[in-house]
Specification:
Oligomer: single chain
Strand order of the largest sheet: 7-8-9-11-12-24-23-21-20-19
CATH class of the domain at 1-75: Alpha Beta
CATH architecture of the domain at 1-75: 3-Layer(aba) Sandwich
Length: 351
Amino acid sequence: MSEEIIGRLIGDKIGLGQQALPDLYEQGYFGRPKGKGLELSLVEAAYLLDRTRIRVLSEGKELDFQAFFQAASSLEKGFEFRYVVYKDLRERGYYVQPGRPDFRVYPRGGHPGKSPAEFYVLVISERMPLPLQEIMQPVRVAGQMRKKLMLAIVDEESDITFYEAREKSMSGLMKAEVDEGGMATLLEDRVVLWDAAASRRLHEHGFFGKPVGERLQLSLVESAYLLDRGVITLVDRSGGAMDLQSFAAKARRIESDFDLKFSVYKDLRDKSLVVKTGFKFGTHFRVYKQVQGPGKVPHSEYLVHTVSVDHVFLPPVLSRAVRLAHSVRKLMVFAYVSDEVRYLEIKRLKP
């Protein structure tokens, strides 16, 4: 240890003298030059103090690691989680600097001044509810700066799971040519298309619905989409004609999130993707880029779950969804509607 490297706790920063620059900043890229000296964040100072690379004084009294850690924890909300992530990334061989939203991480072989940061890091406790917009804001900033956003979720045992979050541009290859489908009837919670030939065309050429015998059974969102495009006409069980507005009113009573699901379904179909229920995976939709025909159904590429613009994620639920998608070789995508339908892809990351 170089005993000359002494820092002083001032507010939520640690100030060091000029002698710290060659050893800490120029070799390890710790802190930021300030005046003639060096300024460290609390997590940087804790990391260096634990390695006996610096000493820290507060009001003339030297703080050991325990005393400093307790003081830092009271000064900076979430300090414990950030320290765990900072320490982990440093020990993996990355140069890490405090920045928005929590850290900037440089690629292996790179460092500040030599190469741009590769990741922005958002540190999250597993017990911390996470509003969608608190992910999207740094996602957009990272995208604008041509960086990746890393979500570092710290569990109660201080293990870290890393994810990458990014806005997703969805597009497919399924230019479904569907013509007149004939009359369909809304039964209890689904729609049946009666004409056998039309049923076969819609299923074979657009992968709509589920054949039940020679008739096609359609979900509520599929029915709304086909009704909106004029492919089918729709009646209720008494034979009364239904337009999209009256059908949607009944669909909302069956499915409270019908409007949200329909907006996303329509957007995905309009982007030439094939959309089917994702119930068996615990999501709203499974999504294919292209389906050649009912006999050649590939693995779907995406699981898509619709959420409201003010949705709040619980990290354990988020982790479960992403892990399940990964286990079945799909990408987990969350869809929400603001000015338009937008998509957030979250996937596991191994730094």
